[in-house]
Specification:
Length: about 325
């Protein structure tokens, strides 16, 4: 080997080691935990950091808002109308309500940059955080600060199902695989507390939404279903179903409800304005109070994903749920 060859080899080796070192340093500078490789979490709060490079910030003229697809989107477009007017005034932007049809479509819309502000349901929050760069910062609560809902296993009178164990051998309706109360929590509870598994002990079916499951039980299309009782309560308040059409078999611990937030790469000043819009909104006499007051909700409560979704992440871990983006 000539001196020149040795020199070139040494330089190439040093360059390779230098590149490796830079990549390792970059990795150290961008810890991400379960987050997708597009995001960083330098402060350790489990959500994507706002980009440090202003060139990566997004500041659109029109903001797109979506509410979680648990019930008829038309009902909720009207319910959110007064809040979205307030949001426009606070941000100086036009705001458009985007009626999503599924949790997967909602997550993909944010991941692809077509959704800026959203409420993701309890179970899909972790996937939205890790795959779409969702930064939740608030959820609805009662004026006294209480919040949340329970998962209930329900049936209808005369179904022959008197206890959870009686579901064996029949159907159990879930909503979607990303739903906490509609799938993940009941799956974990049935496995841990009742040694009951789908396919082996009962036939799982998916209705798509909580209202579909509730109506399915009330109309005797499903013998049993796992649902969020907050949705069921609102449907009863509206007269869509009545209390004598449903029997509760099981009620879980209280879970956090829909988490509201925004996509990570909105300009920081705009993010601040959006957050201020939530916390400065006066609920009294509004379309939002008319709908969500049926659950006793009347304010937006500040939250952190790290603390408030801890129990949900534990349920996901028990179900071997992956946050990898597909």
């Amino acid at each position: 080997m000539t001196k020149l060859t040795r020199l070139l080899t040494t330089v190439a080796t040093a360059a390779a080691l230098g590149a490796f070192g830079m990549a390792a340093q970059a990795q150290e500078d961008c810890p991400r935990g379960d987050l997708d490789e597009r995001f960083c979490d330098r402060d350790g709060d489990l959500i994507a950091d706002i980009p440090t490079d202003p060139a990566q910030w997004v500041d659109p003229d029109t903001l797109i808002f979506a509410y979680t697809p648990v019930e008829d989107p038309a009902v909720y477009k009207e319910a959110w109308a007064d809040f979205l007017t307030h949001l426009e005034a606070e941000t100086g932007k036009d705001v458009v309500f985007f009626p999503v049809q599924s949790n997967a479509a909602q997550i993909e819309a944010m991941r692809s940059g077509r959704l800026h502000i959203s409420g993701f349901n309890t179970g899909s929050n972790p996937l939205a955080v890790n795959c779409a760069g969702f930064r939740p910062f608030t959820m609805m609560a009662a004026p006294d600060g209480s919040f949340g809902y329970e998962m209930e296993l329900i049936t209808y009178p005369g179904s022959g199902i008197e206890a959870v164990e009686d579901i064996k051998g029949g159907q159990l309706a879930f909503t979607s695989p990303t739903s906490n109360s509609g799938f993940k929590a009941p799956s974990a509870i049935l496995k841990a507390d009742y040694d009951m598994l789908p396919e082996r002990d009962f036939e799982p079916v998916f209705s798509g939404k909580h209202d579909n499951s509730i109506l399915g039980v009330a109309n005797k299309d499903y013998p049993a279903a796992a649902v969020a009782n907050s949705v069921m309560g609102r449907m009863m308040e509206r007269g869509v179903v009545s209390g004598d059409q449903v029997v509760s078999l099981y009620k879980s611990q209280t879970f956090p409800t829909t988490g509201y937030g925004l996509v990570y790469n909105l300009a920081p000043e705009l993010q601040e304005k959006i957050q201020n819009a939530f916390f400065s909104f006066d609920w009294e006499g509004t379309s939002l109070e008319e709908e969500f007051g049926k659950n006793g909700e009347g304010q937006f409560l500040p939250i952190t994903y790290q603390e408030y979704w801890d129990v949900i992440r534990k349920i996901d871990a028990a179900n071997d749920v992956s946050y990898a983006c597909e």
